[in-house]
Design brief:
heterodimer; A: alpha+beta; Cytochrome-c3 Hydrogenase, chain B; 21 helices; 16% strand; B: alpha+beta; Alpha-Beta Plaits; four-stranded mixed beta sheet; three-stranded antiparallel beta sheet; 43% helix
Chain lengths: 587, 215
């Protein structure tokens, strides 16, 4: 930055910029230090968002989240919108008083706001007027309080921020449940008793499921509708996930996903942690692809700190992220076949190759799945000797052959084709509206890949194609994944050829990093889709806000749309093709 | 023609099925319980079934493998143990799930802290094996173990490790992580040299100063 530039920003009487001139009285630049984007008055939000989408082409709403600014007695809703043609974000915010936070809902503008607004209502208590179905989504109906608010305290609450006082220097070991018995610092609704609780809120859930009286078989036979719960304990749901399905015979009329069984308030844990402590926690979001999660978080905090990793680190990061994509897609393809009824054999052939990549992860990071390998401005350690050779063997010899074999094994299989083609179709305009990301979006014919649209790291140096298919069905999602494995192999091949020697850490590796006040939104193309981290720092050792835009959570918004009209067995295939990980959905 | 895809797929299955027998022939019946064959079976050159006959066979752990931290002590020539830990508390501060408790005592005479932990606890139920403690330890004192078979019958009595249970000799560390050990030893030597140099410089300065005042 030159010397003339910096004082201009500080000046109170500054000229309105282009956007402000275009929307006079609607947009004001967010002038807090370290912040960006524009403030929009809540009453003009819907009108502005519609204009933004229709006139300026910001058709993709990436993230909606709230921030509780307790000291200022304010709640803020932050929106990140993108163009699917590529380019930077347009960030806008609505501020409301903390006592009565009401913001108009943007579901009418971007359908993808649906689950995200429900999440903000659930965890922060921001009411979105006009939302068609504003119920809790991660917590249970009837839960008291909003757990991401700064004045909310959980069971076994110890302190507001780590490190906890009693660990050192006079640390006397004890289990927290011995000190505080359950219930002592927990708030229940007045008449709640854990034993006698009946989930009344679920009535609202079933009421929301479509009720259409039908006459099956062309009116000759009267049929009843049936509400079936698929899950939470069901092998097809890949974890604890429930789908309330209304059936007319075998045909799905309506579907409501119910989640939150694995909710652990990850974001609040993150706000209590110091910055470095969050790194191993991000492993546990999408536990199939922990390296990519690390990448996203490291990138975001580096953005806040204003540092860049050294060259060798950039290459290692790309290698690890792309190997993770291979691992994830192998897993996902294998288990899609499980969902189709081909039990275990295809899955195990895929997992066989995955294991070899996990061996590499283990040698590099010390753990097969919970890698915890990235650091701010660097990595935990350099590649151990011999690892690059193993990666070469895998990437030049074994994996390309095995992917071709998998292709031969599955792609032309008549049963796979019969079960997948034309099932769960998501048209491109719907995919964009629903904020679908990753293979789900690209299989619908939208060639949107963050690595290409808004390159991070050193992705702009590699030659690769963005895999895209146009059918939008389960089969095309499978083919996109297969193609992405091939492209990832290509990227790693280029990266291992070009990787330079050198340092892996910018500056000294510190256990307590200094993060200046401000906000940052970092996003990476995770195997599941666009993974975003929204981090707000107030200059203290712990982040003030730590939000995750979880791709598998947001991809589920489109699930009901995809399933309607199909048979029960197809739901399983469609869910498998979205490729969700409950650790990330529920957070 | 309908069914060709399925037949081709079955061909792949058949190939996988046969591969194990072919590999068996290659090792002349010594495919299992044979370290050499095992190493190949776990590498990218593997063919056929890759199952590990646990617990008779175990995966070879890479050096960086991390599981539950331990504390290192050096064995001095007279047989006493010298803890490397000086109870600076950085591991307790960086631990994400806060599973480390350190008790540091003050010297009753001088009132200054004793650079030796009075006790050291790790709750292994909480430990997430992230390895941050060993990464940021400035005294090469806490390192990650390779022993992953730690199941017990009573988690309440046995899963809080105290100092006695955490202590391991430096020779054990050298045996599981030779490369890291060599690196650490070099760092210690370097630190000692640096300390000695700064000590010498300080003495030199003091001597010069006293010389000047004498003049």
């Amino acid at each position: 930055m030159t010397e003339e530039e910096s004082p201009q920003v500080e000046e109170a009487t500054r000229e309105p910029d282009d956007m402000e001139q275009q929307f006079p009285g609607v947009l004001t630049l967010d002038e807090r230090k370290g912040y960006g984007g524009y403030l929009v008055p809540p009453d003009k939000l819907v009108e502005f968002a519609t204009q933004l989408r229709d006139e300026l082409g910001y058709d993709y709403l990436s993230s909606v989240t709230g921030v509780d600014y307790l000291p200022e007695e304010k709640m803020e809703v932050v929106y990140h919108a993108y163009r699917t043609q590529g380019g930077p974000a347009f960030v806008f915010k609505a501020q409301v008083p903390r006592g009565d936070p009401v913001v108009p809902s943007l579901v009418g503008v971007w359908l993808g706001a649906d689950f995200q607004e429900r999440e903000a209502w659930d965890l922060l208590g921001i009411r979105f007027t006009g939302h068609p179905n504003l119920r809790r989504i991660l917590m249970w109906e009837g839960f008291e309080g909003h757990p991401l608010r700064k004045d909310w305290r959980e069971a076994y609450y110890e302190e507001d921020a780590k490190p906890f006082e009693n660990r050192f220097p006079e640390g006397g070991v004890y289990r927290i449940e011995d000190k505080i018995s359950f219930g002592k610092n927990v708030k229940y609704p007045s008449e709640f008793s854990p034993e006698g609780w009946i989930p009344e809120g679920d009535e609202g859930l079933y009421a929301g499921v479509g009720q259409i009286s039908t006459d099956g078989n062309g009116g000759t036979l009267k049929t009843d509708q049936l509400v079936v719960n698929l899950g939470p304990q069901h092998p097809s749901t890949h974890g604890v996930f429930r789908m309330v399905v209304t059936l007319d015979g075998e045909t799905v009329i309506d579907l409501q996903p119910v989640m939150g069984y694995l909710h652990r308030n990850h974001e609040q844990i993150g706000e209590r942690n110091t910055y470095i402590m969050n790194m191993p926690y991000t492993d546990r979001l999408d536990y199939i692809s922990s390296m990519s999660n690390n990448f996203g978080y490291a990138l975001t905090v580096e953005k806040l700190m204003g540092i860049k990793p050294p060259e060798r680190t950039e290459y290692i990061r790309v290698i690890m992220a792309e190997l993770t994509r291979i691992v994830n897609h192998l897993w996902s393809i294998g288990f899609l076949l499980n969902d189709l009824g081909a039990f275990q054999t295809p899955a195990l052939y895929a997992i066989n190759e995955r294991e070899l990549v996990l061996d590499v992860f283990e040698a590099v990071s010390g753990s097969r799945m919970m890698c915890n390998y990235f650091r701010f401005g660097g990595l935990a350690r350099d590649l151990p000797p011999g690892t690059l050779q193993t990666i070469r063997e895998l990437i030049f010899e074994r994996l390309p052959r095995r992917i071709d074999e998998l292709d031969l094994y599955l792609t032309d299989n008549e049963i796979v084709r019969a079960r997948c083609i034309g099932v769960g179709v998501l048209p491109p305009e719907k995919a964009v509206a629903f904020s679908a990301a990753g293979p789900v979006l690209r299989a619908s014919g939208v060639p949107y890949d963050v690595r290409r649209a808004d390159p991070y790291g050193i992705y702009d140096r590699f030659d690769f194609e963005v895999a895209v298919r146009y059918g939008g069905d389960v089969y095309d999602r499978y083919l996109v994944r297969l193609q992405e494995i091939r492209e990832s192999i290509r990227i790693v091949q280029q990266a291992v050829e070009d990787i330079p020697e050198g340092e892996i850490q910018t500056g000294k590796a510190l256990y307590q990093v200094r993060v200046p006040a401000g906000e940052a939104y970092g996003r990476v193309e995770n195997p599941k889709g666009e993974l975003g981290f929204y981090v707000v720092s107030n200059g203290k050792p712990n982040p003030w806000r730590y939000h995750i835009r979880a791709p598998s959570f947001i991809n589920l918004t489109a699930l009901a749309e995809m399933c309607k009209g199909h048979k029960v067995a197809d739901i399983v295939a469609i869910l498998g093709s979205i490729d969700i990980i409950l650790g990330e959905v529920d957070r | 023609m309908y069914g060709v895809g399925i037949v081709k797929g079955l061909g792949v299955t058949l190939k996988h099925f046969i591969a194990t027998y072919v590999d068996d022939l290659r090792w002349l019946g010594h495919r299992y319980y044979n370290p050499e064959a095992f190493a190949v079976r776990q590498s990218p050159k593997a063919r056929g079934i890759f199952t590990v006959q646990y617990p008779e066979e175990k995966l070879t752990l890479p050096e960086e493998f991390r599981y539950i931290p331990f504390l290192i002590y050096d064995e001095l020539e007279d047989g006493t143990r010298q803890d490397r830990c000086v109870s600076c508390g950085i591991c307790a501060k960086v631990c994400p799930p806060q599973c480390i408790w350190i008790v540091r005592l003050d010297d009753p005479e001088t009132g200054r802290p004793i650079p030796d932990p009075a006790d050291f606890f790790i709750d292994v139920d909480i430990c997430m094996n992230c390895g941050l403690c060993s990464e940021y330890c400035p005294f090469e004192a806490i390192r990650m173990d390779h022993d992953y078979e730690i199941s017990t019958y009573d988690r309440f009595a046995e899963n809080i490790y105290d100092k006695e249970k955490l202590d391991r000799p430096a020779s054990y560390y050298a045996s599981i992580r030779p490369r890291n050990y060599a690196f650490d030893e070099a760092t210690i030597v370097e630190k000692k040299a640096k300390k000695a140099a700064s000590e010498a410089a300080r003495k030199q300065r003091a001597a010069e100063k006293s010389q000047r005042t004498n003049e």
